Amino acid sequence: MNLIGRTTRKRYYEDPYLAHCSAQVLRSNADYVELDSTVAYPEGGGQESDRGVIHLPDGRCIRFVEAKRMYGYAPRLEGFPDIQIDGVIWHMVHPDDRSVAAGIEEGVSVDIEIDIERRARLTLSHTASHLVYVGIGLFRPDAIPGILGCHIKPEGARFDFKVAERFTPEEVEAITIFANDLVCRNAPVRVESHEVHADARIWRCEAHQMPCGGTHLTSTGSIGLLKIRRKCLGTGKERLSCEFVDAALDLSPYQGRTPL
Ligand SMILES: [Zn+2]
């Protein structure tokens, strides 16, 4: 348990395709709404946050433009460097809905839903980013310790590195071929939780694995063929970006799904 003694139930880990659920308001003000459970994935691990709407019982709505994990703690688990678990999730209120959010009483029952197209794009982008990252580890292992960050957006993903040597066109091509081979095989993707800490999760695809708390496809095929571009950001700094021009976005798993 974290310092504030409460956690938000993270429905996106129980069912990553659940697009809505009912919840109870624990805190609400003009800036954020905290619920006892949520389907909204907060920004984390470079993946941008979900957006969506909280429906009040009287028919009014509060749009949230971001979900943030707050008050998590580091459990110091072997194999999970830098991880933050538990914590609560704040749904950051759209500027035009601040007065509505400020007037909500604690304990009110609401329904929360996410923008499923945005979630589906982020999930695809995030899964693709793993394939690229594994490829970088194979063909440029020296770059991995120098990673400066990653940014996973709906339309693409990118990694920045501090490296002594730039990525050559041949290396970028080898990484691209590796990632696209996994796409063409429609390789299954699995995510497993730590047996004690459910927020500590491992992504697996064939023989590859890494700790990751993001949202992922269940297989790689719908990513479509990846394109990877290299950009020099200055002396010793390189960026690899990937985009998904052939992606097959499938919203059907999210539609008509009901909470367990
Ligand atoms: Zn991931």
From TrEMBL:
InterPro entries given in the database record: Alanyl-tRNA_Editing_Enzymes (IPR051335), Thr/Ala-tRNA-synth_IIc_edit (IPR018163), Transl_B-barrel_sf (IPR009000)
Gene3D superfamilies reported in the protein's UniProt record: 2.40.30.130, Threonyl-trna Synthetase, Chain A, domain 2
GO molecular function: aminoacyl-tRNA deacylase activity; metal ion binding; nucleotide binding
Entry keyword annotation includes Metal-binding: yes
Membrane-spanning intervals of the chain: none
Record's keyword terms, sorted: Metal-binding, Zinc
UniProt name for this protein: Alanyl-tRNA editing protein
Organism: Parazoarcus communis SWub3 = DSM 12120
